[in-house]
């Protein structure tokens, strides 16, 4: 009797399993399980059903993995195609030395892009490069004129002979530049010839810079420490000056300087101050076709300066952390003002102050496209807002003009690098 009851139990259990199965996994197998007489036989099928659910999950996971594998293979193929296209573009840009490198953005750039651009001039159109070299020659001639004035007051046969030698070299370089320009106009110049000519002229210019600097050193002991200027003749990422002293924490400041430039588009970056964690703590920049800007803690205000006319201009910017109020002066006259420029943010101390380059990292990360081209002098910083009268005294070379109480313009405070030059400058003689 017990055997008959067990048989009936298996039959009923089989019916429960068949009724509950929604999928067909092949031939049906009947599993007999002993259950108590009072138990629900259909509930006993849960164990068997759990195994089938596990099998279904495994199959779904396997299908998902196969789909992801196909996606990865497709993406790899796309990456190979893009890599091949990029390689073709790079090879084409290498073969075309006239193709310039354009940068997107409004003047800020990504860190780590400061590779040496000593060879970047070869990617500049030859005519533009020769024009820059011509400007450099003119700068050298002006420096020689200053040396002539010095030699008249301090006659020295050695100084005169060196001056004559340098003058003859400059004349020869001018002839080379003019000859090259004529060749370009006639369409006879080739990339290889352009490179050879550029290397020859740059080598001669480097030699001239060194010889003239040696002569100018003789003047150093006989002139006041603030009667000098810095010259940045070419747009490079290796020519700059560094102020030996850092800035203290400041809740207000005034920064003033004399500038002379005819560079276009944009005169570049007269100065930049970077601190750990913030490369744009305090920056003055005119990049591309944008107006000149002052940056404080990476916040920007546009300034009304127009200075790229090849003439000397005196500029000042004042700022206070209270409400971020700022004022801009050109040649002693206020030309603009505003507020909400980095309000309640003090200028941080222990940074690096660079003249002629914009920093993307602390003390480096220079980009040739943002370099200052021109001449700079009498760079002074105060830890307070100067009055309009004090600014006017500076711009007119008054005897009442003040020197910066944070950074004062002095040769002993400046280190120069990469071919930037120092030579005699007296602002009042230039503007009177």
From TrEMBL:
One Pfam match: Pentaxin
Keywords, in A-Z order: Calcium, Coiled coil, Disulfide bond, Glycoprotein, Metal-binding, Signal
GO BP annotations listed: axonogenesis involved in innervation
Region (Disordered) residue spans: 90-122
Signal peptide residues on this chain, from the entry's feature table: 1-22
One GO CC annotation: glutamatergic synapse
Coiled-coil stretches noted in the UniProt entry, renumbered to this chain: 130-176
Tagged with keyword Glycoprotein: yes
Molecular function (Gene Ontology), one example: metal ion binding
CDD domains referenced in this protein's UniProt entry, alphabetically: PTX
Reported cofactor(s): Ca(2+)
PROSITE patterns xref list: PTX_1, PTX_2
InterPro entries: ConA-like_dom_sf, Neuronal_Pentraxin_Related, Pentaxin_CS, PTX_dom
Pentraxin (PTX) domain sequence ranges: 226-428
Protein name: Neuronal pentraxin 1
Gene that this sequence comes from: NPTX1
